[in-house]
TrEMBL record:
Gene name per UniProt: A06p038190.1_BraROA
CDD domains recorded: NPD_like (cd04730)
Keywords recorded for this protein, A-Z: Flavoprotein, FMN, Oxidoreductase
Protein name from the UniProt record: Nitronate monooxygenase domain-containing protein
Length: 324
């Protein structure tokens, strides 16, 4: 067991594409500059000019490679075309079918593809456990699922990246011991100086320790996409929301500018508060993974990457010495 880079990057640490726009150019560049794999989050609507501008802005902040995540459940064809034209290093795909044609197009553009499926010639695969924050479809815990997937793809010779509830070096080393070559962190990178999350959201990640798997947020916009959220007082009050109710007829509780577009936020909309958000932030969704209680402070993103690598090396060395 050893630390090594993946996909041509210095470190096997991936910063998840945090929606709707929490992982912007500043966060992604900070992760890239530290040797990790930073992923922008593509808008959930077609806006290729904006996507191009976002990618190019990131390139002004780093000369290191980076990537972008696209949710296939939403319109994306024009956005993906622009992404391939801009030749980002990694295209991460989820919540939808990753076609062989799309993978072939990406490879022709020199872009590596990292989805949550493995049968179409992809370059790596992310295995997400039920512990993850945000939208999660799987019901299996990461450390029961991970070795099964590692065994399944063993002959494919592609990196397996573990995601879900990993926030520190202990989780990193545990994932490596089960066969992963890298780890993908979301919540830990929301709680960084460079993330575009609202300060109140960041503070809640430090204050709260419990999460819940639910479906009360965004039922109309994104059906059958349950999520893991912080157990805030608002959530505790509404956790038993009747299944026939959704955000459509709810009152407007705030406003945000998301990827350059002004948007109203209705109660139960599932939109996390970003730096522009105004209104009743306490009543908005706040996604977080199960290990949020291990996050004790908001740090620079580069320091998160650095500490993961250095502390994991120490843990591995200590284990080796104990065995020897």
């Amino acid at each position: 067991m050893a630390l090594k880079g993946i996909l041509g990057f210095e470190h096997g640490i991936v910063q998840a594409p945090l929606g709707p726009d929490i992982s912007g150019p500043e966060l992604v560049a900070a992760v890239a500059n530290a040797g990790g794999i930073g992923l922008l989050r593509c808008p959930d609507w077609e806006c290729p000019d904006y996507v191009r501008e976002m990618i190019r802005k990131t390139k002004t902040l780093t000369d290191k490679p980076f990537g972008i995540g696209v949710v296939l459940a939403f319109p994306h064809e024009l956005n993906v075309k622009t992404i391939l034209e801009e030749k980002v290093a990694v295209l991460q795909l989820y919540w939808g079918e990753c076609s062989k044609e799309l993978v072939d197009d990406a490879h022709c553009a020199g872009v590596k593809v990292v989805p949550q499926a493995v049968d179409v010639g992809v370059d790596a695969i992310i295995v997400q456990g039920h512990e993850a924050g945000g939208h999660v479809s799987g019901k299996d815990g990461l450390f029961s699922l991970l070795p099964r997937v590692v065994d399944l793809v063993g002959e494919c010779d592609i990196p397996v990246i573990a995601a879900g509830g990993i926030v520190d070096a202990r989780g990193y080393v545990a994932a490596l011991s089960l066969g992963a070559q890298g780890v993908c962190l979301g919540t830990r990178f929301v709680a960084t100086h460079e993330s575009y999350a609202h300060p109140i959201y960041k503070r809640k990640l430090i204050e709260y320790e419990k999460t819940e798997y639910t479906d009360i947020f965004g039922r109309a916009r994104w059906p059958s996409a349950p999520q893991r959220v912080l157990e805030t007082p608002f959530f505790d009050d509404w956790r038993s929301l009747p299944s026939h109710e959704n955000e459509v007829d709810q009152p407007v509780i705030g406003r945000s500018t998301i990827h350059g577009v002004e948007k109203e936020i209705r109660r139960f909309a599932g939109t996390v508060p970003n730096m522009t958000t105004t209104g009743d932030l306490e009543s908005m969704a706040m996604y977080a993974g199960q290990s949020v209680g291990l996050i004790k402070e908001i740090l620079p993103a580069g320091e998160v990457v650095k500490s993961l690598v250095e502390e994991a090396q120490l843990l591995i060395l200590k284990k080796f010495n104990n065995v020897a």
